[in-house]
Design a protein that fits this description.
elongated; 2 domains
């Protein structure tokens, strides 16, 4: 993309006016960097091989916290899969899979018993225990692998978020 002219009202970068796909005259010094500031309820995947896979963390009360894997595996929930879909869609992906391989969290659990019904747009909107109320063990971090983007989607790479 080259000569991108966003107004700020576009929901995705691909909807901003620009020169056209593969029409560019960019040099190496024209790469764009973005630093995002997290807001309440934002989520991220950490400790994975790329931004589409890792252990789930949620931003709450000014800090990143861990999310317990209860209900994500479908053991307790009739709505199995909805929570995973909500996580990945909040991150901008189409859907994804729950993974039990990211179960060693580095921080404090702040969210437990997340039980989405399929109507929520953000994981914090799903039914769950009160913030900070949890009974999670050291091996109960929630891991995910999200499905690939659609054409025109944007991703951030090589960041430290």
């Amino acid at each position: 993309m080259d000569d991108v002219q966003c107004t700020g009202s576009e929901p995705t970068l691909a909807q901003c006016p620009f020169r056209g796909w593969n029409l560019e005259n960019c040099s190496g010094s024209e790469a764009v960097g973005v630093r995002c500031v997290p807001g309440e309820g934002d989520i991220r995947l950490v400790d994975g091989p790329h931004g589409m896979e890792g252990r789930l963390q949620i931003y709450h009360s000014g800090a990143w916290g861990e999310v317990c894997d209860d209900y994500f595996d479908g053991f307790y929930s009739a709505y199995y899969g909805y929570s995973t879909t909500t996580v990945c869609q909040q991150l901008g992906y189409r859907g994804g899979s729950f993974l039990s391989t990211y179960d060693a969290p580095s921080g404090t659990f702040v969210l437990d018993d997340v039980n989405c019904t399929g109507t929520e747009r953000r994981i914090g909107d799903c039914p769950h225990q009160p913030w900070g109320t949890e009974n999670c063990g050291a091996t109960e971090g929630a891991g995910f692998r999200c499905d690939v983007h659609a054409d025109g989607d944007t991703r951030l790479v090589a960041g430290t978020a």
